[in-house]
Design goal:
11 strands; 4-stranded mixed beta sheet; 60s Ribosomal Protein L30, Chain: A; Alpha/beta knot; 2 domains; alpha/beta
C-alpha cells in the first residue's frame, strides 16, 4: 500500500535522499515559486506530476496542513534485523548507539524521537510489530527528513531483541521515572542501547526485566515526568556528551 508525505521540507528531503521511489508528486496549479522549484526537482527525478483540486489534495494528505504538496511513495521498507546488526558491527566495537521504543503509539512523538536519534548518530531504531506506531506520513513529516537517513527495524519480540544485542556486546539501559540510577551519573560509553517506554505506563514488565540497568532523569520541578520524545532526546545526547568528552 502506497504512503503519502506532505509539506515542503519533508517532500524536499525525500526527493533528495534517493530512498523510497516516489510514485506521484501531487499539487494544485498554479504553483508558487517555491513549489515550482520543488516540482522541477520532481521532474528531474522523473516523478509524474499530478494536478489536483484543493479538496482532493487535502483528502490525499489527510490534513489541511500540507503546504500545497503531497508526495505519494512506495511503502516504507523496514531494515531487516541482520542488516541492523551488520551496520552496528561496521561501526567498530564500543561506538554503536541504538534506540529501542517500547509501545510508542503517538506518530508525532515517534517522528520527533527519530529526528533526535538521527542527530545523535544512532545506528538504528528498533520497534515492536505490535502495540506500536508504524512508519506513516505523519511520522515522516514529524521526523523532518530523518527517516531518509535512519534505519528502522521492526521485531516480533522486543525483549528477545534486547537479549541478542547483549550477546553482541551492548549494554541495555531503560529509561524509567523510578529508575535507581540518575542518568547523568552513569557511565554510558561503549556499545549502548537505550530503551524508552510509552508515556503513562513506561516500560512493559518483560522489557524492563531485560534491561541491564534503569536510569532516571533528575526532575527539579513539580511535573512528575517529561514528554517521551523530550526524555529520549535528553538520554541520547547524554550518551553523545560522554563520548565527546
Amino acid at each position: 500500500m502506497a504512503e503519502t508525505i506532505c509539506g515542503i521540507h519533508p517532500v524536499t528531503h525525500e526527493l533528495l535522499s534517493g530512498g523510497r521511489r516516489p510514485r506521484e508528486f501531487c499539487c494544485v496549479f498554479p504553483l508558487s515559486p517555491r513549489l515550482e522549484e520543488l516540482a522541477a526537482l520532481a521532474r528531474k527525478s522523473n516523478v509524474p506530476i499530478r494536478d489536483l483540486s484543493r479538496p482532493e489534495l487535502e483528502a490525499l494528505a489527510g490534513t489541511p496542513h500540507h503546504q500545497g504538496v503531497v508526495l505519494v511513495l512506495e511503502p516504507f521498507a523496514y531494515t531487516p534485523w541482520e542488516e541492523l546488526l551488520r551496520r552496528c558491527r561496521q561501526g567498530g566495537k564500543g561506538n554503536s548507539l541504538v534506540l529501542l521504543l517500547d509501545s510508542i503509539t503517538d506518530p508525532r512523538n515517534f517522528g520527533a524521537i527519530l529526528r533526535s536519534a538521527d542527530a545523535a548518530g544512532c545506528r538504528g531504531v528498533i520497534i515492536p510489530k505490535d502495540r506500536s506506531c508504524p512508519v506513516t506520513g505523519v511520522v515522516h513529516k514529524a521526523s523532518s527528513g530523518a527517516l531518509a537517513q535512519l534505519p528502522v527495524c521492526r521485531v516480533t519480540n522486543l525483549a528477545r531483541a534486547m537479549e541478542e544485542l547483549k550477546r553482541e556486546g551492548f549494554w541495555i539501559y531503560g529509561l524509567a521515572a523510578e529508575g535507581s540510577t540518575p542518568l547523568f551519573g552513569h557511565d554510558l560509553k561503549g556499545d549502548v542501547a537505550l530503551v524508552v517506554g510509552c508515556e503513562g505506563k513506561g516500560l512493559r514488565p518483560q522489557v524492563r526485566k531485560a534491561c541491564d540497568a534503569h536510569l532516571s532523569i533528575p526532575m527539579a520541578g513539580r511535573v512528575a515526568s517529561l514528554n517521551v520524545a523530550v526524555a529520549a532526546s535528553i538520554a541520547l545526547f547524554e550518551v553523545v556528551r560522554q563520548r565527546s568528552g
